[in-house]
Amino acid sequence: MNDPVLVSARDLTKTFTIGSLEVHALRGVNFELRQGEFASLVGPSGSGKSTLLNLIGALDSISGGELSVLNHDISKLSKEERSRLRLSSLGFVFQAYNLVPVLTAVENVEFVLELQGAGAEKRGLAMEILSELGLTDLADRRPSELSGGQQQRVAVARAVVSRPQLVLADEPTANLDGENAESLMELMLNLNNRYGMTFLFATHDPRMMNHAARVITLTDGVITSDVVR
């Protein structure tokens, strides 16, 4: 493969201290993710999937080893530099949605574009992505007026609206029924195929695993399998 490497981890470790107890969430992870990949992280709860996504997304600091994301050494970035990296090049879909409660669905999607300096075109871009996810009629509702599945789709729309280089998703179909999960996967695959947008998502959902071109299995903080299909 000659595509650029977007993520490179070498002997990556993450340890959390809870009281007097040390929890080794990642125990020496080694892998690369290249531009254009559509890859899934799988494994039992507590295996380190969310921790790895948070480190790649510059949301947390590494404990040891090396981690490069979009040619940036994550361990050497300041808090401000991490924020700029997330804003300019990364998209996130969180398990808890993290929507702004006082903003409508379309305003939540526009928010990222506004932070990036988009002008009058931001409303059209936001509505376009909401339409692709079947949310046009819900654009003016606030998160409290949306179901969990609808909030999840708004969160996905917000993550991909600016067409970031890398999208990180933590259980993106967890709260979706079959029809909406399929709609979401089709959107993600379309963005991957049309724009070369790279996706790395943690999932327990067999539907997501079946669509992934690469399945990386984490067990007790280490990669135990890495299969390209």
Give a brief rundown of this model.
The chain is of the alpha/beta class and 229 residues long.
Identify the notable features of this structure and list them briefly:
alpha/beta; about 230 residues; 4-stranded antiparallel sheet
Head-to-tail CA distance between termini: 14 Å
| Weakly predicted, low-confidence segments | none
Give the ordered list of helices and strands: EEEHEEHEHHHEHEHEE
**In order across it, which strands form the biggest sheet?**
6-7-8-3-9-10
Structural class category = alpha/beta
The Cα radius of gyration reads: 17 Å
Mean pLDDT figure? 92
Q: Give the helix level as a range of percent.
A: 25-40%
How many helical stretches? 7
Number of extended strands: 10
Q: Which word captures the global form?
A: globular
Fold and architecture overview:
By secondary structure, the chain is an alpha/beta fold. Helices cover 34% and strands 30% of the residues. It is built from seven helices and ten strands. The chain has a six-stranded mixed sheet. β4 and β5 form a beta hairpin. The radius of gyration is 17 Å and the shape is globular.
